[in-house]
Give the backbone structure.
Amino acid sequence: MFKIPDPQATGAAVFFAGVKSACTSVFFLVLFGTYIGMGALAHDFGFSSWWLALSSVLVWAAPAQVIIISSLGTGASLIEAAVAVSLSAIRLMPMVVTLLPLLRDEKTRTRDLLLPVHFTSVSMWVESLRMLPLLPRGQRIAFCNGLSTGYMGTAVVSGFAGFYLAAGLPDLYAGTLLFITPMSFLISTVRNARLMVDRLALVLGLVLGPVLAANHVGLDIMWTGIVGGTVAYGVHRLREAMR
Amino acid sequence: MSAVLNELWPYFILVMVGFLPNEVWRALGFVAARGLNEDSEIVVWSRAVATAILAAVIAKLILFSSGALATIPLPVRVSAAVLGFLAFLAIRRSVFAGVIVGEAALLLGGMLFGK
C-alpha cells in the first residue's frame, strides 16, 4: 500500500519513498518480464548487454527499444529505424504535457524538470498521475525521480538477467524468453486500445506489417504505421461525421 | 583506431537512431506543455500510427522469428499467441495471466513439436 511521506520529510527520504513505491507497484512485474524478454532479444540480434543497459537509460521506452533492436538486427536502414522509433515515440509528448502541471509551481527551476521529463514513460506516467496529487507540491519532483529510478533500475537489472539467461539456455528455453516480448506487447497494446480507432490500428498493423514484410516492401514498419494508423484515424473521423 | 571505432559504432547508432528520435518528443512536450490534451486530433492520429507500428513489430517477431525462437515451429508460435490473448480476455483482462498462458503453451508446443 502506498504511504504518503511525512510533509516535513527531506528530499532523500521522499526520493526513497518513490523508489519503494516503484518496487511494490504492478509495473515492477511488467518491467521485469518485459526487460527479461528484451535482454534475450538483444542477445539474439547480436547487441551487447552494456549496449542494452545504456539504451534502457537513454531511450527509456520499451517499444522504441524493441523497434531499434529488431529492425537494426534484421538489417533495416538507419533512417528507417530512426523514423520508426520517432513515430512510436510521439505518444511521449502529450504525456509530458499532462505531467508537467502536476510537478511545477511558480518557484520550480527549469533544470529540476529535465530529469522527470526524460523519465516520462507509460509506467511512470500512469503511476505519477495517480500518486502525485496526493503529495505536497514541494515533494513531487523528488518522489517522481525516485519512482522512475526504481523502474529504470528494474529494467536495467532484468535486461542483464535476460541477456545472460538467453546466452546460457538451450534453444527451447531461450526461445520462450524471446517470446515474452511479442506476447506481453500484444496483450498490453490490446489493453491500452480502448477506443475503436486504436483497436482498428492494432488489427491493421498486425495484418499489414507481415504482408508488407513478406512482399519485401522497403521501410515496411514505417509504412505500416503511417498507412494503418491513418486509415484507422480516417475511419474514426468518418464515423464521427456520420453520427 | 578502427578497432576503437568499431567498438563505439553501436553506441553512436544508439544515440542517433534510438535516443535522439525518441527524446525529441519529450523535449517538444516540455516546450509545448500547454494547449495539447489527450483528445486533440493530432494526438489521436499519432496514437493510431504508434499502435500500428507496434502491432507490425509484434507480428513480425512472431511470424518471422529469428534465432532461438525460430527453432519453435510457426504454428506453435501463432497458437501460443492466440491462446495467450484468449486467456487475457477470459481471466479478468490480466496481462500477467495472458503472458503466462501464452508462454506455457509455447513451451509445451515446443517440447512436443520442436526441432
